[in-house]
Amino acid sequence: MLRANLTMASNGRVVIPAQMRSALGLADGGKVVARLVDGVVVLEPIEAAIRRAQALVRRYVPEGADLIEELAAERRAAAEHE
């Protein structure tokens, strides 16, 4: 487990140490998502946040379902009834 004591600058900036950025696979300009969870700031690489969101949705979508095609079919049907 990596740990570091960080100092926040007067403008609110905090530098993530190089070793942590490397462990997270963050390159220069890498995007992170910040969440406040029970009074704790959690930083997560955006790719990891997307994978977590996809896994959450996958729990509610049947295997093999094509949500895009279902939406498109619903839109086509609605347009035909106009």
UniProtKB/TrEMBL annotation:
UniProt keyword annotations, A-Z: DNA-binding
InterPro entries per record: SpoVT-AbrB_dom (IPR007159), SpoVT-AbrB_sf (IPR037914)
Occurrences of domain SpoVT-AbrB (ranges): 3-48
Superkingdom of origin organism: Bacteria
Alphabetical list of PROSITE patterns matching this protein: SPOVT_ABRB
Protein name: AbrB family transcriptional regulator
Gene Ontology MF term list: DNA binding
Originating organism: Nitrospirillum viridazoti CBAmc
